[in-house]
Amino acid sequence: MSFLMEKGSPWLQRVVLFARNFFKHPKMLGSLIPSSRFLVNRLLRQVDWRSARVIVEYGPGVGVFTTEILRRMRPDAVLITFETNGDFVDYLRRTVRDERLQLIHGSAGEINTVLAQLGLTHADYIISGIPYSVMPNEVRSTILTESHAALSAQGRFLVYQFSRAALPYLRQVFSTVEVGLEPLNIPPASLFFCRP
Length: 196
Known about the structure:
The protein has eight helices and nine strands. The chain is of the alpha/beta class. It has a seven-stranded mixed β-sheet with strand order 5-3-2-6-7-9-8, with helices on both faces. A two-stranded antiparallel sheet has the order 1-4. The protein is globular, with a radius of gyration of 15 Å. The N and C termini lie far apart (31 Å).
């Protein structure tokens, strides 16, 4: 049941895969290297790990957040990740072995459909690093409204971005949005802690 990363998957392999995809899709990744441990720790401090049973992640990439979420979460919790990049999906399927992980090769806009298919009624936390400021308006609107609908009343939408451009979009959907900054990341990351 516990998280296991396959042997032969060193940090360098993650960085190379991430960098290669950055050059293919720079607007979708926003950074040449994966998130720093400082960013991961800062964002995940917002999670109440004792009570969180359904956690969703948008854009797991090479699994920097994914592996840490799996390490911290309850044995009976589930992590659902949405990734549109086939290279990252293949990498995660090869390297992350954990029965609590549901890896979806598809859009975050499908969150409520996927929750229903898994017999789940809501998400306790959604963690998102996908680039809201460069998405088509319709895609962004769908993802944010579907995310709002998917959260429990006490749920939280935890977002990291590499600019503050997403803030107005988040404020259109969520009643409360707290803003933070993690300078120890390349580039520095803006953080948004949203409540429905």
